[in-house]
Amino acid sequence: MPEAQPISAAWHPRAMARLYARGMGLLTFSINVTLDGCVDHQVGIADDETHAFFTRLLDDGGAMLWGRVTYEMMESYWPAVARGDEEAPPAIREWAVKLEAKPKYVVSSTRSDFSWTNSHHLTGGLRTAVEELKDATPAGVLLGSGTLATELDRLDLIDEYQFLVHPRIAGHGPTLFESGLPDTRQLDLVSAEPLRNGAVALHYTRAH
User: Fold this and answer.
1) Secondary structure class of 203 (helix, strand, coil)
2) Domain that includes residue 145, residue range
3) pLDDT band at 189 (very low <50, low <70, confident <90, very high)
4) What b-and-e string marks burial along 119-141, b requiring 16 or more CB atoms within 10 Å of the CB?
């Protein structure tokens, strides 16, 4: 099967301006999502192509940002893969090793000790803490928690969205932004890239 070609709108002037003209790093929300909006990590396609997509995002970003629940889910598995204690294909091990080295910031009101390599507790007011993190991370911050994303979107702190839409209908939650946003978000398309496994990588920036 020939490799699918991306449909790109990267020339869009507003999208390019947001990518290059800002003084602080961008906050990009990226997550796996099904056609009916489910963000349960167990229902998507977990193959080399999917992991290669997220490895590219990881390479491009300067830091990861999670809520405690997502952090603990990641912490329970990926360090063991990076150490070689868990069997994994090369693409998945590559992701784990790169994730190990990447700065990881966690928002939590119930836990303050984060022992995984390069992990940091983000403290203080949420808006100020995330703005300061963006300021300190010119390469950008990759946000991977659905619940935290809703809180940050309500504060107008998310700049871009990179969703990997899987060809699945889950029929259950949790769903994207299920607790609601104050108003509709208008977005500009940067690119749409179909993967061979049937998923589509969608990249949007906030329209202003």
Assistant:
1) strand
2) 7-206
3) very high
4) beebeeebeebbeebbeebeebb
| Cα gap 52→101, rounded to integer Å | 17
Alpha-carbon gap, residue 59 to 139, rounded angstroms: 10
Is residue 178 assigned to a domain?
yes
Residue 46 belongs to some domain of the structure: yes
Ramachandran category for residue 25: left, alpha or beta (phi over 0 → left; psi -120 to 50 → alpha): beta
Q: Rounded to an integer, what distance in angstroms lies between the CA atom of residue 141 and that of residue 26? A: 6
Phi/psi class of residue 106: alpha, beta or left (left: φ > 0; alpha: ψ in -120 to 50)? beta
- The model carries a pTM of 0.87
Instruction: Say if 1 falls within a structural domain.
Output: no
142 and 53 Cβ atoms separated by less than 8 Å = no
Q: Please answer whether residues 187 and 54 qualify as being in contact, where contact means their C-beta atoms are separated by less than 8 angstroms.
A: no
Cα–Cα distance for residue pair 133/117, rounded to 1 Å: 18
Binned at pLDDT 50, 70 and 90, residue 23 comes out as low
The CATH number given to whatever domain includes residue 27 is 3.40.430.10
Q: Is pLDDT above 70 for 136?
A: yes
Instruction: Find where tokens 């995002």 sit.
Output: 57
Domain count, the chain: 1
pLDDT digits (tens, 9 = 90+) for 56-87: 999 999 999 999 999 999 999 999 999 999 99
Type of residue found at 33 = V
